[in-house]
Amino acid sequence: MGIRSLVCAATVIGLGAMLSFGRSKTAFPDPVIDIPASQVAGPQTAVLAGGCFWGMEAVFEHLKGVINVVSGFAGGDKSTAHYETVSTGRTGHAESVKITFDPKQITYGQILKVYFSVAHDPTELNHQGPDYGTQYRSAIFYANDEQKRVAEAYIQQLDEAKVYSHKIVTQVAPLTGFYPAEAYHQHYLENHMDQPYIVYNDLPKLAALKKQFPEMCKR
């Protein structure tokens, strides 16, 4: 997004390398600290940023227990929450997704597990793949102290386990507002399956999700 690098000549080997994210070969761990369903009532939300929101939205839409996913912006002011303005990288916003989920079917910690393992590379600072700028940063916008506690503990857990060859750079920040993006950004992958950017950068994420966590995917 912004100025996209539309690389069409991707090979299968290249796609596989992109999905590795510099991770070790061990199974991706569950979070030791989570929010039990018994502690919350009704649908919950998570706001996450990790590069282009097209791919992030598509990944989380495929999870069991996820009710709705909206692409949008978080981290800046409402007045600058417009795609062209955010694309300048000077608004404080990050392209983000707001995930509404049923905690009886999927926990906040499980959502973070998918976020860290297949949705993006949490070791890349202010960019993801071909997209550069603070608007593409890795960030968790927590809605309450419990979400903050789970996010910070999981990052520490993954770093200490050396799941990645580089340190996680994901920002953990309070959610001050989430602003939906323009209508044409919503369900973008579903409506543009053949676009080169989607084919190279986002469809492999869905493939990785279905391969690594088939039990978590919607049929």
Describe this structure in words.
It is built from seven helices and eight strands; from the N terminus they run H-E-H-E-H-E-H-E-E-E-H-E-E-H-H. The chain has 219 residues and is an alpha+beta fold. The protein has a single domain, classed as Peptide Methionine Sulfoxide Reductase, Chain A (2-Layer Sandwich). The strands form two sheets. It has a six-stranded mixed β-sheet, with helices on one face. A two-stranded antiparallel ribbon has the order 4-5. A hairpin with a 2-residue loop joins strand 4 and strand 5 (131-132). It is globular and about 40 Å long. Mean pLDDT is 91; it is low at 1-18.
Percent of residues in helical segments?
25-40%
Which word captures the global form?
A: globular
Strand order of the largest sheet: 7-6-1-3-2-8
The unreliable regions are 1-18
CATH architecture: 2-Layer Sandwich
What Rg, in angstroms, do the CA atoms define? 16 Å
Under the CATH scheme, which class?
Answer: Alpha Beta
The overall pLDDT, averaged over residues, is: 91
**CATH-defined topology:** Peptide Methionine Sulfoxide Reductase, Chain A
N- and C-termini, Cα separation: 29 Å
Q: What is the SS-derived class?
A: alpha+beta
Major pleated sheet: 6 strands, mixed
At the fourth level of CATH, the homologous superfamily is: Peptide methionine sulphoxide reductase MsrA
What's the total number of strands? Answer: 8
Elements, N to C (H/E): HEHEHEHEEEHEEHH
Q: Approximately how much beta-strand content do the residues carry?
A: 15-25%
Q: Report the total helices.
A: 7
Count of discrete domains? 1
